[in-house]
Design brief:
By secondary structure, this protein is of the alpha+beta class. It has five domains: 100 residues, Rossmann fold, CATH 3.40.50; 70 residues, Dna Ligase, domain 1 (2-Layer Sandwich); 243 residues, D-amino Acid Aminotransferase, Chain A, domain 1; 129 residues, Glycoprotein, Type 4 Pilin (2-Layer Sandwich); 69 residues, RNA polymerase II/Efflux pump adaptor protein, barrel-sandwich hybrid domain (OB fold (Dihydrolipoamide Acetyltransferase, E2P), Beta Barrel). Helix content is 28%, strand content 33%. The protein has an eight-stranded antiparallel beta sheet with strand order 14-13-10-11-12-15-22-20, with helices on both faces. The chain binds adenosine-5'-diphosphate. The site of adenosine-5'-diphosphate has 18 residues, from strand 13 and strand 14. Adenosine-5'-diphosphate binds next to strand 13 and strand 14.
Length: 669
């Protein structure tokens, strides 16, 4: 076994690899970019080396810099994690030349699976079932059209060099084929520098079921059963589970055998995943093989009790697989939810910012959290916005699902928008509970999964009021204690007024509207005039932001996170953001805010869709911003007239930069 390994990655996967290395007594070496100097994977490693500026191209993708650190630190092997250099055959080859073990498959296996069409030809030879299609070298448009007609519509065009869903087009009938082909080729060329495509029968309601395989250099190969990754947005996974709901033993064996045959066909060594589409009639088809550890590997670990990173290290060090096939068994059910800093209601737009408050559910035999961040860390434009993977396990799927729902309800993140509410909506959907999964799940259940923003409930408003009033009372107490005259009426926070009822009016901004709540002081607490009626409330703050409240006799626990005038009220199962309007401190600021439109994240302006003088309605697309490798359309936050545009197309803007201004008389609250 190795004494020292280098982890050529960051975030949760780097931390994950360090955990196993530490368990085995292996010294770990991290690398980091400028943006990650204070990151968790740097803190956890025994040694860490700076390798360049924040953009991955200039740091985590710099093979020479990483090999140099490996030599300097005396690392005998490099674990590439996933993404970055993990499927880069040249890097694996360079490691070999430098006498360092690449913890991954042989170079030839990476190459064989690097092209989707070449991989398919190899699989065909190994009698692994393929989706009916065309994956030949001849790219003549007429020949491709003929191929599509023969396959029968709908047909899927895929970039041979593709990944991440780019360069894919569904074609529903013969007349649309030529245009779709041209578009897919353009996208493939710009995305991968290679415009070759392949054609596949488009399955209309498939499941994504993949098999974890493992092989050693001594000729042993096993599979560790399947994972169902059908819950996808933009062809990317968000929830994964093992075993696949409803999978029967016969089909499992057939798919497992096919995956092992696939691995053997390319002389595979190490951890790999063979991805299949499973059709409604139980037919399954090879899609691609990922020659690395997958993001969702923990669900397999939870049901098999194996540590796949340990297996990787053993195999890379020349050892034998720890198990043969019949020694592996499925125990219970595991589900993984990927927690992202992103906004589901804005087409999953990544959300950039600092994690000002982070509280996770308690880890146990049932709940595992794989993360690379701590409270206070930032989510930057440079890397994947995944905050953590929440993995739950129980004896049955129903039990695991219950644990998932409760762990999601306890997961508190403030500072960036997250998909936690969305994940909870999926986990609570009856079709998900019934195991009725396919890759179109999110689209089909869109209405139930993307609820309209609801106004703050009376309970949320009461908790916010209570928090503000209790904080003010505590501040006044502190001020009184520090002043010469602690009995001065100026320190009172009881809203005392001469000749009047003691009360205060609190105004909150809630999405686009404002809500006023009058709080009357009563000896037993605050009597609040809420939209739904009066409520007597009282409570206690514990200094950690936790609020123990009595709302008209009901005991409620909440966490209120304050950031300037922003209050995030986190209760079991949800969080709601309100802005406290402080009439003194922020007079005039609202108006300025309303007239401006700022960049939600750093990026490049791709297109301006309006010009000064254009009258727009709320929701009108204004600007297209390219950030985190995706295009984001920024829409008008309200009706108005564009007064000025501050940047031209092509400009690079910082987060918060004012993109355009509205004419001030058109700004409505
Ligand atoms: P990428 O490598 O770009 O991620 P994949 O080939 O892995 O692309 O496919 C990603 C997803 O696209 C799959 O998980 C599935 O949801 C969908 N998909 C791929 N091929 C087909 C097909 N032939 N029919 C229906 N859906 C497909």
């Amino acid at each position: 076994m190795f004494d020292t390994i280098l982890i050529a990655n960051r975030g949760e996967i780097a931390c994950r690899v360090i955990r196993t290395a530490r368990k085995l007594g292996i010294r770990t070496v991290s690398v980091y970019s400028d943006a990650d100097a204070g990151a968790l994977h740097v803190a956890l490693a025994d040694e860490a080396y700076h390798i360049g500026p924040a953009p991955a191209r200039e740091s985590y993708l710099r093979a020479e810099a990483i090999l140099e650190v490996a030599a300097r630190s005396g690392s005998q092997a490099i674990h590439p994690g996933y993404g970055f250099l993990s499927e880069n055959a040249e890097f694996a080859e360079a490691c070999g030349k430098a006498g360092i073990v690449f913890i991954g498959p042989p170079v030839a296996a990476i190459r064989a699976m690097g092209s989707k069409s070449a991989a398919k030809r190899i699989m065909e030879g190994a009698a692994v079932p393929l989706v009916p299609g065309y994956h030949g070298e001849d790219q003549d448009p007429a020949l491709l059209q003929g191929g599509a007609d023969r396959i029968g519509y709908p047909v899927l065009i895929k970039a041979t060099a593709g990944g991440g869903g780019k360069g894919m087009r569904v074609v529903w009938d013969a007349p649309s084929f030529a245009d779709a082909l041209a578009a897919a080729k353009r996208e493939a060329l710009s995305g991968f520098g290679d415009d070759r495509v392949l054609l596949e029968k488009y399955l209309t309601r498939p499941r994504h079921v993949e098999i974890q395989v493992f092989a050693d250099a001594r000729g042993n190969a096993v599979h560790l059963f399947e994972r169902d990754c059908s819950i996808q947005r933009r062809h990317q996974k968000v929830l994964e589970e093992a075993p696949a709901p409803g999978m029967d033993e016969g089909l499992r064996m057939k798919m497992g055998d096919a995956a092992v045959a696939a691995a053997r066909a390319i002389g595979y060594v190490g951890a790999g995943t063979v991805e299949f589409l499973l059709d409604e009639d139980g037919s399954f088809y090879f899609m691609e093989m990922n020659t690395r550890l997958q993001v969702e590997h923990p669900v397999t670990e939870m049901i098999t009790g194996q540590d796949l990173v340990e297996w990787q290290l053993l195999v890379a060090a020349g050892g034998e697989l720890p198990c043969v096939q019949h020694e592996l068994a499925i125990g219970g059910h595991a589900i993984e939810a990927r927690i992202y800093a992103e906004d589901p209601s804005r087409d999953f737009l990544p959300s950039i910012g600092d994690l000002t408050h982070l509280r996770t559910p308690q880890e146990s035999a049932h709940v595992r959290i794989d993360t690379g961040v701590r409270q206070g860390d930032g989510v930057s434009i440079h890397y994947d916005p995944m905050i953590a993977k929440l993995i739950v396990w129980d004896a049955t799927r129903a039990g695991a699902l219950r644990r998932l729902r409760s762990a999601l309800a306890e997961y508190q993140v403030v500072g960036v928008t997250t998909n936690i509410g969305f994940l909870a909506a999926v986990a609570s959907h009856p079709a998900f509970a019934a195991g009725d999964l396919d890759t179109g799940f999110i689209e089909r259940h869109r209405a139930a999964l993307f609820p309209e923003a609801v106004p703050a409930s009376d309970q949320v408003l009461a908790l916010a009021c209570l928090d503000v009033l209790l904080c003010r009372a505590a501040e006044a107490e502190r001020a009184a204690a520090g002043s010469g005259d602690c009995w001065s009426p100026w320190h009172l926070t009881t809203g005392w007024q001469m000749n009047g009822d003691s009360h205060q009016v609190l105004t909150f901004g809630d999405n686009e509207s404002a809500v006023c709540v009058t709080a009357h002081y009563r000896p037993s607490g605050y009597l609040l005039d809420l939209p739904g009626g009066q409520l007597l409330t009282r409570g206690q703050l514990d200094g950690e932001g936790d609020l123990l409240a009595d709302l008209g006799g009901a005991r409620v626990k909440a966490t209120v996170v304050r950031h300037g005038c922003d209050l995030t009220i986190v209760t079991h199962g949800g969080s709601h953001r309100l802005t406290l309007h402080d009439p003194l401190a922020h007079a005039g600021e609202q108006e300025v805010e309303g007239g401006r439109l700022t960049a939600p994240m750093p990026g490049k302006i791709v297109a301006l869709l309006v010009e000064p003088g254009t009258r727009v309605e709320r929701g009108t697309p204004l600007v297209i911003l390219e950030a985190m490798k995706m295009e984001h359309t920024i829409t008008a936050p309200r009706d108005g007239v564009v007064a000025e545009i501050h940047f031209a197309a092509g400009a690079v803007v910082n987060e918060g930069a004012e993109l355009l201004a509205f004419a001030s008389d058109e700004v409505s609250g």
